[in-house]
Amino acid sequence: MLGPGCAPPRESGLDFQRELANGNVELPVIFITGHGDIPMGVQAMKAGAVDFLTKPFRDQDLLDAIQKAIGRDQARRQQKTEGAGIRNRFNSLTPREREVMSLVVAGLLNKQVAAKLGMSETTAKIHRGQVMRKMEAQSLPDLVRMSERLGTPS
Q: How far apart are CA 95 and CA 29, in angstroms?
């Protein structure tokens, strides 16, 4: 129990940063401290902090850190949105198209895909075309990158 005039114990910024990460809260973090040291700064940066400012600091240093944090967060949000779009397009594929996509990104030719799936080469080409169209892939390397982002087996 705390006595009169005693403040409750406070968690450290590093503890708070860890709680944010554990709760999947993806906010950019800038540390501002009057009592920081190099190991603490290294730990914060390794855990994803945008910057670690020690007092006193220049106003411009804080403004630069905020700009960097905003840029990083915008990039993260855009990547998340693009990932959701790729996932939605993948979900629009039929099971057969998913099979074809898996084999195509593994490097098999249409003839090999056809033999593996027991279909004609023409049918394999049609399915491959459908996959490219539905996934909005401009090229095979583009489709491979999408597959990697999805974590689909090849």
A: 42
